[in-house]
Amino acid sequence: MPVPKILAVIPARGGSKGVLRKNVRALAGKPLIAYTIEAALQVGDRLQGVIVSTDDQAIAEVALQHGAEVPFLRPPELSSDRIPMVPVLQHAVGESEARGGTRLDWILLLQPTAPLRTPDDIRAAIELATRGGCDSVISVVQVFAVHPILMKRIEGDRLLPFCIEEQEGTRRQDYQPPAYMRNGAIYLTRRDVLMERGSIWGEIIRPYVMPEERSVSIDHELDFKLAELMLQHQRP
Q1: d(Cα 39, Cα 208) in Å, to the nearest integer?
Q2: Rounded to 10 degrees, what is the CA torsion of 86, 22, 63, 81?
Q3: Quick one: 223 exposed, middle or buried, by C-beta within 10 A (0-12, 13-18, 19+)?
Q4: Among 57, 63, 81, 107, which residue's Cβ finds the most Cβ atoms within 10 Å?
Q5: What is the pLDDT averaged over residues 137-146?
Q6: Which are the contacts of 169, defined by CB distance < 8 A and separation ≥ 6?
Q7: How many Å apart are CA 80 and CA 89, to the nearest integer?
Q8: Secondary structure, 3-state, the chain
Q9: Which pLDDT score, from 0 to 100, does residue 198 have?
Q10: Dist CA 77 CA 13 (whole Å)
Q11: What is the C-alpha to C-alpha distance for residues 31 and 80, in angstroms, rounded to an integer?
């Protein structure tokens, strides 16, 4: 069986809003984007390449310094915060295939906002994908504080279940069924699903479950501080 051709794409716009310039901001001593680049490079034997798609020259320089490829700058029409991820990835695939002359099999989307994901997480997701029978592999984390059983709606002056009836006194370990949410760390998609169907998810999604301590997603300043504390705690 031929080895699948997998391209890792790290999208990094210059105009982040929740945390200003977060992609190149120092997190526990190095730029945020460096954590994702380094994790991808450590599974380089499974990847065709690790590229950063950015519209920002400063981000491009930081990416190059940490070993990623930046074969193009993202055009302005794909650089707004209103642009969905699908056309950004389609552009990256088109550019990469045109330059490399090789048709890809899978696209690995690694968002730089997930600095605690490890090379082993990426390898495990690739193993799940290459078993076949799925359109994508998406990383998730089990949730408790935001489990659907806790969600309510207000109807008039009454508080009612949003979707699952909660029995008074239910303990979190008894929440059923277990609930999971996407953690933003790994999206691995078949090329044809992305390029022909215009989807990152597809129809058949295989989950890769990650622990809470590796599932921090940096969208706000508090997330940044939490990730920094966790990284500092990991150091010997």
Answers
A1: 17
A2: 30
A3: middle
A4: 63
A5: 94
A6: none
A7: 14
A8: CCCCCEEEEEECCCCCCCCCCHHHCEECCEEHHHHHHHHHHCCHHHCCEEEEECCCHHHHHHHHHCCCECCCCCCHHHCCCCCCHHHHHHHHHHHHHHHHCCCCCEEEECCCCCCCCCHHHHHHHHHHHHCCCCCEEEEEEEECCCCHHHCEEEECCEEEECCCCCCCCCCHHHCCCCEEEEEEEEEEEEHHHHHHHCCCCCCCEEEEECCHHHCCCCCCHHHHHHHHHHHHHHCC
A9: 98
A10: 12
A11: 22
Per-residue pLDDT band at 1 (split at 50, 70, 90): low
pLDDT for 193 equals: 98
- The verdict on whether omega for the bond into residue 177 sits within 30 degrees of 0, i.e. cis, is yes
Class of domain 6-140+182-234: alpha beta
Give percent above pLDDT 90 in the chain.
77
Q: What are phi and psi of 27, to 5 degrees?
A: -125, 110
pTM recorded for the entire structure: 0.93
| Contacts of 131 by beta carbon, 8 Å cutoff, 6+ apart | none
Tokens for 15?
Answer: 């105009």
89-128, pLDDT tens digit by residue? Answer: 999 999 999 998 889 999 999 999 999 999 999 999 999 9
Rounded distance between C-alpha atoms, residue 73 and residue 77, angstroms: 12
CB contact set of 83 (below 8 Å; sequence gap of 6+): 77
80 versus 205: which is more confidently predicted? 205
